[in-house]
Amino acid sequence: MQSLLTLCGTLAPYCGVLCFLAPMPTILEVARDKSTGALPLLPYSSMISNSFVWVMYGLLKNLPSVYMSNAVGVTLGTYYFRTYTKYCTTIGAGKQIRTHFRGAACIIVFNMCLAQILEKDMAADIIGKEGVFYCMVLFASPLVALKHVLETKSAASIPLPFTLACFVNCLCWSVTGWFTMKDFNIYFPNLMGLSCACAQLGLKGMYGDKRGKGSGLPK
C-alpha cells in the first residue's frame, strides 16, 4: 500500500503537467495555419485562472507538488492564450479576448487579495473551495457531448489520449489527496474528474470511433 501511495504521489504532478500539455498540438497547428478556425478561447483562459487558484492554494498549504505543477499550467495557459489572440481573426474577436482577459485578471487579483487580507488558513479554505468548483466544471465539461454520442452511436468526439491522461491524473491525485494529504479540496474534485473520465472511457469502449449519420462534432 505504501508503495502505491508513493507512486501516486510521485506521478500526480507529472500527470497534471501532461494534461496541461494536451492542447499543445492544437496550438502549434493554429500557429502554423495562422488561424484559430472555430476553436473556443475558454479552455485557455480557464486554464490560466484555474491553475493560478491552485498555485495560491498550494503556496498557502505548503504543498510543492500542487503549486509547482500548476505553475506550469499558468505558464502554458498564458502561451496558449497569447498564441490564440495573435491569430484570432473572427468577427468580434477583440471584444471576446478583452472579456476573457479581464475575467482571468479579476480571478487572479481577487485571490491575491484574499491571500493578503485574510488569515492564512481561512484564505486557503476559501481558495480551495473555489478551486474545487472550477475543477468540477472543467472535468465535467466534456460530458456535454454525451447526448451527441448517444444519438450518433459514435464516440469520435471524445479524445482518447487526453481522456486517458485525465483518468491517470485524477486517479493519482485522488489517492494522494485522500490517503497522503487527507485534503478534501484535493481528493474530492479529482474523484469527480475520475468519474467523468470513466464515463467517457465507457462511452469510448461502447461506441468507438465509428461514424454514422450526423456524427460530426456537436455544435
SSE pattern, N- to C-terminal: HHHHHHHHH
Rg over CA atoms, rounded to whole Å, is 18 Å
Q: What proportion strand?
A: under 5%
Query: Residue ranges: pLDDT <50 for 5 or more in a row?
Result: 215-219
- The total of beta strands comes to 0
* Helix and strand composition category: mainly alpha
The end-to-end span amounts to 45 Å
Assign a percent range to the helix content: over 70%
Mean pLDDT: 89
Shape: globular
Q: Count structural domains.
A: 1
Helical stretch count? 9
Q: What does the largest sheet look like?
A: none
Explain what this protein looks like in three dimensions.
One of its GO terms (cellular component) is Golgi membrane. Belongs to the SWEET sugar transporter family. Helix 2 runs parallel beside helix 4 and helix 3 runs antiparallel to helix 6. The protein is 79% helix and 0% strand. With 219 residues, it is mainly α. The protein has helices at 2-21, 24-33, 42-61, 64-87, 93-117, 120-140, 146-152, 160-181, 184-207.
